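Before the break, one more example. Copy the sequence into your notebook; we will annotate it together after we see the structure.
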Amino acid sequence: MTANVTTASAKYNRVAIALHWVLAILILFLLFPGEELIEVERGQSVAGWGPTAHASLGILVLLLSILRIVWRVSHSAPPLPASMPIWQVKATAAIHGLLYLLMLGIPLAGWLALAPWAAERLDPQAVTFFQLMPLNIWPNIGEWTGELHEIGGTLAQILIAIHVLAALKHQFIDKDGLMRRMMFR
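Here is what the structure looks like once it is written out:
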């Protein structure tokens, strides 16, 4: 027996849905093709649009993630299907918690990594937040910040794959309507 989660009260609200999908698109872009935007050889200028685009989108992810967390804390999530085993409920909570942590941690680590990265390149002040303010404002605390940023990105890729596969399992195998909670219709 599967629970019906398709009622209006069993859906996330429009703000939560919009934040989910906007963040999903930005994060997927930054984790895959957007990663190449930051690739500037040592000794070269960072004045091109790539580093600023990567850094700007990363800071945008950070800001939208903060907004999403504030929204989520102030608006309860719709119930999970009653048919979900307890281990899946706990796994769902753990994966979502880790994803939220990474949505904050990866951009922060990337922002901190900007100083050691820019120190080896020309024009570090050229990396801005959508040309509104410079982003190279933190002290250089070491290259470990860049490594942390990369490890976080790899972990995010793994968790996103698990998240997507679990959603597809619920849609096509369990057929419990769980994915409808995050759809506009």
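Helices lie at 14-31, 49-74, 86-119, 144-174. The chain has one domain: 8-182. Try to locate both features in your own notes.
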